[in-house]
Write a structure and sequence with these properties.
Elements: E1 10-12, E2 17-19, H1 22-25, H2 27-38, E3 43-47, E4 56-62, E5 65-71, E6 77-81, E7 96-98, E8 101-103, E9 110-112, E10 117-119, E11 141-145, E12 148-152, H3 160-164, H4 168-176, E13 184-185, E14 189-193, H5 197-203, H6 210-213, H7 215-235, H8 245-253, E15 262-265, E16 271-274, H9 286-309, E17 312-316, E18 320-322, E19 326-334, E20 337-346, H10 352-366, H11 373-387, E21 395-396, E22 405-406, E23 412-415, H12 420-433
Antiparallel strand pairs: 1-2, 2-21, 3-12, 4-5, 4-7, 5-6, 8-9, 9-10, 11-12, 13-20, 14-20, 15-16, 15-23, 16-17, 17-18, 18-19, 19-20, 22-23
The protein binds FE2/S2 (inorganic) cluster and fe (ii) ion.
């Protein structure tokens, strides 16, 4: 069979940007993505707070490869294939746990948390020295940036810091929201949707949809948050609610956000969606909120403080988003099935009311029964069904094309509703998937196949 060119699926022209709907539905493309994207590039595998103690482990995936992340006796965080080198049984079957020694549930071979084979029952039945080749299979590269642990199955991959590039500044800004402390991930909310993994990658930095898809949720939240803010403001002399989060939710609900915010696109497919306002309420009083803001200013200085305080979704290619009070990662299960893990960001360095309030907002917005996440999942399901219909001209991602400006790092910057992040995603996808590696391909007939 002739090799497929990714450029057959992404048309990146001067005046058009189109993507074939087959990228969401074709099982062969999905198989290629697992090999050429997930097994070639850095993928988030854990936050260091998920394995805080020696022997703690987390089971996860890189693409469809089962992985276990474990903190060993020397405090190193290691990652191995979650597969026994004897006959392939899964070693750690729970999502989290603590094993001083990892014992395979099939024939009880045991392994140190550093991966070394410790004991083989009735070892004398094997030839001498047999054990030397029977250690856990390591993930070739594991690196940590800002508490985020990434693994890569490609030993030749560029350093993690290089892969993250200038997006690191916004990881730093996200971590700075812990106000001098460190985030701890809460237990994740998990849900799946009947759609392709890339739908979530596009959506988490899509500023064109929230005021439409989430209008009911924003209306409800605006009402609840503003009622609390008004009652507080009424008690405080000269109190105003205009700059508080409730008003911002109300602005979104009224679709009155056109001039706010921006989108950014970095090298390697990373991007941001920034609404330019403080979107988090955590249902705390203005005083509690102000203490946090003042602390951020004190630690980070006036220049950086707005980048820490104001709302942002930071997308790290291919399947991670760092949000105001949530970390979200999503995992391709099948071409039309994705599992999303949404973790509340807990933080002991801030006022308990703010910490608890953030936790509650994570639950009420991004859990499977939250006010926001199911709206998006419903759209993903509908796009997945519709994508089975071959749309000859492809799906359009040209909003704001050609009007981008350069940001402080040289990144592309567009309006909040522009499809700048989505184009960055698809360009990176096409580069990773392009056997002919022609990034600037433009189709003369404008048809994405
Ligand atoms: S498969 Fe693990 S000990 Fe046999
Ligand atoms: Fe959404």
């Amino acid at each position: 069979m002739a090799k497929m060119s990714a450029n057959d699926y992404v048309v990146d022209g001067d005046n058009q940007f189109r993507v074939s709907p087959r990228v969401y539905t074709d099982g062969r493309i999905f198989v290629d993505e697992m090999r050429d994207i997930f097994e070639r590039t850095w993928v988030f595998i854990a936050h260091e707070s998920e394995v805080p103690k020696r022997g703690d482990f987390k089971s996860t995936f890189i693409g469809q490869r089962p992985i276990v992340v474990v903190r060993d006796k020397t405090e190193n965080i290691n990652a191995f294939f979650n597969i026994c080198p004897h006959r392939g049984a899964a070693l750690c079957r729970e999502q989290y746990g603590n094993y001083p020694v990892i014992v395979c549930p099939y024939h009880a071979w045991s392994f140190k948390t550093s991966g070394e084979c410790l004991k083989i029952p009735d070892e004398g039945r094997y030839p001498a020295g047999f054990r030397e080749g029977m250690h856990l299979i390591p993930v070739p590269r594991v690196e940590n940036y800002g508490g985020l642990i990434f693994g890569c199955l490609n030993a030749e991959v560029e350093a993690l810091e290089s892969f993250l590039g200038d997006a690191r500044y916004y990881i730093d800004a996200w971590n700075a929201r812990a106000a001098g402390g460190k985030f701890k991930l809460g237990y994740p909310n998990k849900y799946s949707y009947a759609g392709n993994w890339k739908l979530q990658s596009e959506n988490v930095v899509d500023g064109y949809h929230p005021q439409v898809v989430h209008s009911a949720a924003f209306n409800a939240m605006a009402g609840a948050i503003m009622a609390k803010e008004k009652s507080e403001a009424g008690q405080a002399e000269g109190g105003s609610v205009e700059a508080r989060p409730g008003a911002h939710y109300a602005a979104w609900a009224k679709k009155d956000v056109g001039s706010l915010g921006l989108t950014r696109a970095f090298r390697n497919g990373h991007s941001t969606l920034e609404s330019g306002i403080m979107f988090e309420s955590a249902r705390v009083s203005a005083e509690v909120s102000q203490v946090w803001i003042d602390r951020i200013r004190e630690i980070n200085g006036e220049d950086m403080a707005p980048d820490v305080i104001l709302n942002r979704h930071l997308f790290i290619f291919p399947n991670l988003a760092l949000m105001d009070f949530v970390l979200r990662a999503w995992y391709p299960v099948a071409v039309d099935r994705t599992e999303t893990y949404s973790y509340a960001l807990r933080n002991e360095a801030i006022d308990e009311a703010l910490d608890v309030g953030r936790h509650l907002e994570a639950q009420t917005q991004y859990s499977p029964s939250g006010a926001v996440a199911p709206d998006d999942a419903d759209i993903f399901n509908s796009v997945q069904s519709a994508a089975m219909t071959d749309i000859p001209q492809g799906l359009d991602f040209s909003r704001g094309l050609g009007t981008e400006s350069a940001g402080r790092f040289g990144e592309l910057v567009g309006a909040i509703s522009d499809e700048v992040p989505q184009r960055a995603f698809w360009r990176e996808w096409a580069t990773k998937m392009a056997y002919k590696a022609d990034r600037t391909h433009s189709s003369s007939d404008g048809e994405a196949r």
